[in-house]
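Q: We require from you a single protein entry containing the residue sequence and its fold in token form, and nothing else.
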Amino acid sequence: MGGTMIIVFVGTAGSGKTSLTGAFGEYLEENYKVAYVNLDTGVKELPYKPDIDVREFVTVEEIMKEGYGPNGAIVESYDRLMNKFDYYLKEILELESKKDYVLIDTPGQMETFLFHEFGVKLMENLPYPLVVYLSDPEILRKPTDYCFVRFFALLIDLRLGATTVPALNKVDLLKEEQLEKHRKYFEDLDYLMGRLKFDPSMQGLMAYKMCSIMMEVLPPIRVLYLSAKTREGFEDLETLAYEHYCTCGDLT
């Protein structure tokens, strides 16, 4: 293969990052050497055996015993992790030199990774990480929601400085016609724009204008459709990771 692919899973709480990390890793292990990195200080159980686990240094549970609330404990845990930043970066880069894939599972509260210096600095120091931004079908109700997901993936790319691919997770829960509807909205920006044009609300107008900008700035990246249960989309993700690595982060 000639190099290691680093895939970072981000998404809101409940979007299925941890299950997907475990299932995709299992799929890859059939042909490759895979390493797992857990960066979630609050997770109780993992479906994979982490090679690096930040909970060995700090956990949200321990910090809450000091009197912090859940959100404060998450932020404090990352403040403390910052003191060990060089150690974790060195450990991840060591794995990168020995394995074919390094899968990174990020905190349940996505904002912890996106807005704390630890996450941003880590991404700046890793060689060509591919970020997979997971969305739950539950949040996709209206045309404006698709605009939000595509735009947010772009903002993650901007924030972390790493190629970010939007992915619809848990597609095993969808009927075929539901999945087709999601595909249409995600993949055909003209169709989405057409639907937004007839939305008379301020929200619709804003989304229409944002989508117009998106057509100019959006890199032509495929949307992934994934399922930890059925392994749907795993081959697509593997192919995308390979293309991303071979082109040094340029998926155009």
User: Anything to note?
Assistant: DSSP finds eleven helices and seven strands in the chain. The chain has one domain: 5-250.
